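Service request form, structural biology core

Requester: graduate student, group of Dr. S.
Request type: structure prediction, single chain
Budget code: on file
Notes: please return the result as structure tokens.

Sequence provided:
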Amino acid sequence: MPVHKQLSVQKKMTAIIFLISMLVMLLTSLQFVFFELKRTQDFAKDDLNSLAKVISSNSSLPMALKDHVAMQEILNSLGSRKDVASAYLLSGNGQALVSYTAPEISSRLSSDEEIEFLEQESAQIEEGKQAGTEMTWQENGRLSHFRPVFYEGNLVGYSYLSFETSALSEQNIYLLLGWLLSMGAAVIVTFLLSSRLQKHITAPIEELASRMRQISLEKRLLDPEVHESKDEFGQLFEGFDEMIKALKERDQLLEKHRQELELEVQVRTRALEAEKERAEQATLAKSKF
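Core staff response, request fulfilled:
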């Protein structure tokens, strides 16, 4: 026999309320987490694009004048941003004019990792130069942006910025952990509430089952009870009480009919006894005669 058929109504109702509530919360919360992750991702890209646009705008004149000191000062201003990993201002043929690398990020990298990132930047710059348009990449924990730089409508070079996404990844991890903790709390609260709320449904059923067991054990019909509930359970109790009342009326009719039969049997028995006594007396009289 399947396990669910062996469970009580109370446990089934608890399971139904719990599962439905958890399904709704899971779908709703997953949708929220998905859009929140996408929003943070889009925000990071927009932030990178905005910063690249500012750098390109400020660097256009120094790049046109080939003022390396001014260009370097512009890139050095990125030191206030903890998430900027590297930045380059490039000539029209893709050669680096000035560069910036965050010292705290560079110090954390091994020589192999640093070479890997340099190769990645070189490949992205070449790809961006070939395309000749803005491009954005997200690879190996870096969010990078390539942008052409124009001065008075003429191409004077390119800018390249690279962000570390560790802070973004950490934020996403905190978001997922918060979601897991919220879901854990929701599981506990939902289970407690479902266990409590199901009593409003199972309590009348248990009460009716208890009355039926009492009738079966005591072998007698109980008096009807007054129920204030007017829902389906109230109608069920009213129907049960009507059945008890009908059975009592039937038993009363049967008892009355039984008493009438007993009375009739007694009357007939007395009549037969009187007839028998008269017959015996007649027989005795004949024998004496």
